[in-house]
Amino acid sequence: MSLLSLLLPTLASAEPWIEDKVFFTESANAGSSMVDAADLDGDGWIDLVFANGGGYDKGEVNSNQLQQAYKNEAGLATTDISVKTFGDNVPFNGRAVKVRDIDRDGDNDIMLGVTWQSQSQLFLNSDGLGTFINETETHLPQLDASIGDLELGDVDGDGDLDMVLADWGPDAPVGDPVSTDGGITQLWLQSGEPADFAAAGTGMFEDATLGNMPLDKVRWSWDLEFVDIDNDWDLDVVVSCFACTKQSMFLFANDGAGMFANVTTDNITQGLGAFDAEAIDLNGDNFLDLVTLRDGTGGRNRVLINNTKGGFVDNTDLVWPPIQNPQSFDHMGAFLDYNSDGRPDMVIGAFHPGKVYPDRLMENNLGKFKQNTFAFNTPTPATYAIVLADFNQDRILDVAMSQNENKFAKSVFIGSNVDLLADTHAPIFVNYEKLAQDIEFGIDHTLKARVHDNKSPLMLHDFRDVDGEQNGRPYIESWDGDPGDPDMNMGDISAPGEWYGEYLWRVTVNVPKSVQSFYYRMCAIDAAGNKVCTGLEHVDNPDDSTTTGDDSTTTGDDTTGAVTSLSSSSASISDTDTDSGSSSGIIPTTGGPPITTATTTGDDATAGLTTLDSDSQLDDDGCGCDVDQSPTRGLLASLALFGLLGIRRRRHS
């Protein structure tokens, strides 16, 4: 039996994704390294931005390219808006691109990481309608660098988005990449502090690298990710190293105030030659795990399971069996739930597919990955990066690819409504904080949560947006007293939560001073209208001796006695929390009974709610419905909790 026959997909009848050259095509054939997708002009349709540049291991005369952006014309076609977005005839050697609301003024901006010792570029959306102004000279540190990747997130807890950048260093990897010294990972903090978490930032950055980052040099990093590795609600950093001789990954731990320490030693099983790292909870223990590309034995990919103590161990063969994980030259992956079963699947973009394996789908079959090598109807020459987005609003994720090296055709593959299911699964809503019983009434309190839609990276457009209000983002619904059935008695709705990096959110709610008991729950609604809520919680006003409901608590010294968690591995709260509310009046949890979910779409997203048994264990899909049905997931959780705890984190003090 041939190896190919062993790898035949479960969906062999047709390809899940079909290239659509009517919707998207380009004639410039400009080499692109990375691609991102977001709404640039506020019309509700997801547009495309490509970081273009040439040169694989060195900069050349023709390495600088014009950057490209494309407007989505209501899901029917795309229009080139590159000049409007990036300016006329201004080439850069673009490497990384992120489209985020950098200055928090309600629209999307563009950060372009530029390589081969050049100045990276910042384009701010000046009117919310897609008119961009290059603010690099006044808003960014002025330094030439070789940026391999970058991420945005609030690393110091002051309410605005900061930036961490992987730098290849001044001696770019020419010829033999291992001869380079590498570069120090950069930290740029956004200057000033917003008046509160809902306020806009300055969009101006200061270089804080020397004072706040480890000075370890990383040789040729192709990927950098924010990952809260220990569930303490701050943004740690995972950095891949393609040309390191003794390791493939670095871990930099955040103390909560934006001070990072190298905690790599003894905290992660190493490989060699990693391109990419993607984070999601694979085993249902509510801690993020990692999939790393190409740094396993023989160029295979790896699965690193979080040991719940700030480290990762290699458990590849249990999740990604060797027969499904051949030698590859994969460049980038992204998680999605392609069949709406609540488990994270993965799309992989491959380089040189004629020599190894093509762009493909890894199907999550009860906790084990299985290859679908026929996921795309046409092969691509050299995929550097991919991005997932619903370009035609049919509730099915599509795939855009950047291409580099010999042939430069970019591609967009539209999800087939024959072979892919529309999104019917509610967002993943497991890790979240609860109010403690000794909170102060009459003030705002900010709670944190990890919420996503089983897709990476998280984007604001993954959640329902009605009239530009993003009112499906994680929010708190509250009542002044026992609401009875919360699904039949709509409470007060808080402002939408604020994303601050990775899959993490801050949600602020006012606890009225005059009420005897304050009832609340957290909810989120994805772009397809699927809703999820935590169980109903309440706190009693210490000024009144009355207790209500079955969840009554004792006040005084034992203020947390009635707060329970379904996980034995609850996170801790950082002492450096600077939220506008009381940080001491918050109790962390990695779950809480019960979770309610709905799959009703449209405006009536609260109809058809189902409440789970309060004794159910929450799993990775946030619903507690698969714990006893998946032996593999249970095995992995046991390994993570009991067999892998020998590794301990060396944390910066």
In short:
It contains 6 helices and 42 strands.
List the helices and strands and how they pair.
Layout: H1 3-6, E1 17-19, E2 32-38, E3 47-52, E4 68-73, E5 77-80, H2 82-86, E6 94-100, E7 109-114, E8 121-125, E9 132-134, H3 136-139, E10 147-153, E11 162-167, E12 183-184, E13 186-190, E14 205-207, H4 209-212, E15 217-218, E16 224-226, E17 237-240, E18 249-254, E19 260-262, E20 277-280, E21 289-292, E22 302-306, E23 312-314, H5 316-319, E24 330-336, E25 345-350, E26 360-365, E27 368-372, E28 383-389, E29 398-403, E30 411-415, E31 428-435, E32 443-452, E33 475-479, E34 492-493, E35 498-501, E36 504-511, E37 517-525, E38 531-533, E39 537-540, E40 586-589, E41 596-598, E42 610-611, H6 631-643
What does this structure look like?
With 653 residues, this protein is mainly beta. The chain is built from 6 helices and 42 strands. Mean pLDDT is 82; it is low at 1-13, 545-584, 590-594 and 599-653.
Please count the beta strands (DSSP E, at least 2 residues each). Answer: 42
Count of DSSP-assigned helices: 6
The low-confidence parts are 1-13, 545-584, 590-594, 599-653
Distance between the termini: 56 Å
- Content of β-strand: 25-35%
Question: Could you describe the largest sheet, including whether it forms a barrel?
Answer: 7 strands, antiparallel
Kindly name the structural category.
Answer: mainly beta
